Amino acid sequence: MTAVSTTPVETWAIGQTEYDQRVERVRSILAQRRLDALVLFHPIRMAYVSGFFHLTTERPMAIVVPLEGALGALIPQLEQEHIAKAPSVKQLKVYPEFPTGGTKHPMEHLVDLLSEMKLGGKRIGYDSNGAPDVEGYDGPDLSEVWPGHAEKARDIVDNLRMVKSETELRYIYESAKWGNLAHRLMQERLELDRNEIDIALEASAEASRMMLAALGPTYHPESGAWAAPNPAIAMFHAGANTAFPHPLANTLGLQRGDVLVTGAGADVAGYQSELERTMIVGEPGDEFIRSFEQMLRLQQVAFDALKPGRKLSDVEREVSSAFKEFGVAEYQRHHTGHGIGLEGHEAPYIDKGDERVLQEKMVFSVEPGIYVPGLAGFRHSDTVVIRAGGAERITYYPRDLASMIVRL
Known about the structure:
The protein is of the alpha/beta class and about 400 residues long. The protein has helices at about 15-30, 45-50, 80-85, 105-115, 140-145, 155-160, 165-190, 195-215, 285-305, 310-325; strands spanning about 35-40, 60-65, 70-75, 90-95, 125, 150, 230-240, 260-265, 275-280, 335-340, 345-350, 365, 370, 375-380, 380-385, 390-395, 405. The protein has 10 helices and 17 strands.
């Protein structure tokens, strides 16, 4: 007789217990600040406390976290099925559509929701003073329609998001694994005269098919898209275009001597990782080798500087000092890195303006880049988790020069 496995199936989603714990932490901070509720308009902050992931459009939505009782939500009618997947949201205010065509504006429905949650005249915090200005949305600020006290409190959720739980870390590790595969498939498909968009699409599609087959039917990406997305992606930019930190893609075919700045990652339960590499088609010249090695040294300075208890601003100053020491200060175009998790870029930042202190289980990209006009950009990016002993690199794709030479 064949034994039946009782091993629980990974659902690739944050469990309700963790969502409940997040809400309780939010409530603890609300109590300290003498606020009676928190209104969240940002889609990722909404998802963080409730599990309600959705596609942002011109239709305003909000999650309300009261000091006591169940969560509330303002949603358009077309999101009723999605909100049903968030069991902690019990009190709904559903409006038919936006624009309203002469009926009540959705923000007025939000005021009704707050009143029905017995928050009339109470003190509320918000992450932004109204719904985001996207895709033609136009509406009043929350402070214009709310008769009680309202104050900015976006940091409540953002601060909680900075330190990851073990479940969040597991999904980020999983993302790094599939990003590694997507990058490998992309590198294997590099061909002369073939353009970057064509290669990236093929590699992303294959990596995504393999990822979906491995993770099983309980997996679904949380990023949201009209068409079926590639949950694992690979991409790159080629040639002198790489001297810009955020270049636009082109359809020129690969040529010998092209420098490539590549990227790969994956969406696992909404969580992201970041892997970037600098490569060259054909044998590198002396200028390339010198800049590549300087870039590696700068990244190592950053790895070594990331330790619990240090200020992020001090880490950035240390890396900037290394730019000067190596004689490449004029080629520094951006800060060393950023937080990563439910968003590809999120707080905190490895930047001179960020005075926050590094804590264990924070997750960052580490990507000090050198951008040499007329030559190329040089940037490796790796995702790291802050541990007691320093930065643990979880993106494990090769970084050395020999591995980055593409011989075609």
